[in-house]
């Protein structure tokens, strides 16, 4: 068992959990992830390692509880633990000193963005974080990013915090200003957002890395569920990524595959709910 040290609610359905995992804490690098199971009967959930404390032997995971698997994970409170935390998995992020770097995060994608921005700042880059959400309470890690970023810019769809609109509008302001224009961009969030960012930076020839999180099962490339097309070649996000050149990713194919899985997931959720209701009626 992997002991849960703390379980904090950041906003609706989003938890920050600190887990005792000394080996993973010691070996993880920015961009890598773990696959987690709450118990022996639960599904395997891939989660980015948001942070690690080698001295304490802990890793930090930020989880959006949407399906049954993630709800079971965030339902575990200290001092109980998780059945499995396997990793670190995936390739580490390639970090170098580019100069100015923009880190663009949409929604819970900001949790994945956090370790990338930290690594870029540690390498001596001037980092601007551009983060957003539908409304102010859904904008996460703003204060944490401010600890090492040179600037943190916020966009909310309802205008409750920062610029009203999307993170792409804020990024465009940076791209239009030669003095602020980044040499590299990291983008993490919904598929549509990452595609939009890649199209924004393409005319400028700016290096753009996106972190993909398609459906994963084993984390070793065996199942094929996380297959993506990058530069016309088939890649697997779990072993070849999760980060790829945003200008080479076939986002339309990725969105189509994700939508297919979502339909199956909804169908299975309904089927399981029906079975549970039948079991309850049989117990009366």
How do the strands and helices of this protein lay out in sequence?
Elements: E1 2-11, E2 14-20, H1 22-27, E3 33-37, E4 45-53, E5 58-64, H2 68-74, E6 81-82, E7 84-89, E8 100-106, H3 109-122, E9 126-133, H4 142-146, E10 151-156, E11 163-164, H5 167-176, E12 184-188, H6 191-201, E13 207-211, E14 227-230, E15 233-236, H7 237-240, E16 243-245, H8 251-283
Parallel strand pairs: 8-9, 8-12, 9-10, 10-11, 12-13
Antiparallel strand pairs: 1-2, 1-6, 2-5, 3-4, 3-7, 4-5, 13-16, 14-15
Q: What would you call the shape?
A: globular
The CATH architecture designation of the largest domain is: 3-Layer(aba) Sandwich
Query: What is the H level of CATH, i.e. the homologous superfamily of the largest domain?
Result: Nucleotide-binding domain of ferredoxin-NADP reductase (FNR) module
Look at the structure and give the mean pLDDT: 88
Structural class given helices, strands, pairing?
alpha/beta
Estimate nothing, just give the exact number of structural domains.
Answer: 2
Largest sheet properties: 7 strands, antiparallel
N-C termini distance? 35 Å
């Amino acid at each position: 068992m992997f002991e849960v040290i703390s379980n904090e609610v950041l906003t609706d359905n989003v938890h920050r959990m600190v887990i005792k995992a000394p080996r993973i804490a010691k070996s993880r690098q920015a961009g890598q992830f773990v696959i987690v199971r709450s118990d022996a009967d639960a599904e395997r959930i891939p989660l980015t390692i948001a942070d690690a404390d080698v001295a304490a032997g802990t890793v930090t995971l930020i989880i959006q509880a949407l399906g049954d698997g993630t709800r079971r994970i965030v339902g575990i409170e200290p001092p109980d633990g998780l059945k499995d935390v396997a990793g670190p998995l995936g390739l580490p992020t390639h970090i170098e000193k580019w100069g100015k770097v923009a880190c663009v995060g949409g929604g819970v994608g900001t949790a994945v963005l956090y370790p990338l921005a930290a690594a870029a700042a540690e390498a001596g880059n001037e980092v601007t974080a551009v983060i957003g959400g539908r409304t102010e309470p859904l904008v996460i890690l703003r204060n944490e990013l401010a600890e090492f970023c040179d600037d943190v810019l916020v966009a909310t769809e309802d205008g409750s915090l920062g610029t009203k609109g999307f993170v792409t509008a804020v990024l465009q302001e940076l791209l239009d200003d030669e003095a602020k224009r980044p040499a590299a961009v990291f983008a993490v969030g919904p598929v549509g957002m990452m595609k939009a960012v890649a199209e924004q930076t393409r005319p400028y020839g700016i290096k753009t890395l996106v972190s993909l999180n398609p459906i994963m099962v084993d984390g070793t490339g065996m199942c094929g569920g996380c297959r993506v097309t990058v530069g016309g070649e088939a890649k697997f996000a779990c072993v070849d990524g999760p980060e790829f050149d945003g200008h080479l990713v076939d986002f339309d194919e990725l969105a189509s595959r994700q939508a297919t899985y979502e339909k199956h997931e909804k169908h299975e959720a309904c089927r399981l709910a029906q079975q549970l209701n039948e079991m309850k009626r049989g117990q009366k």
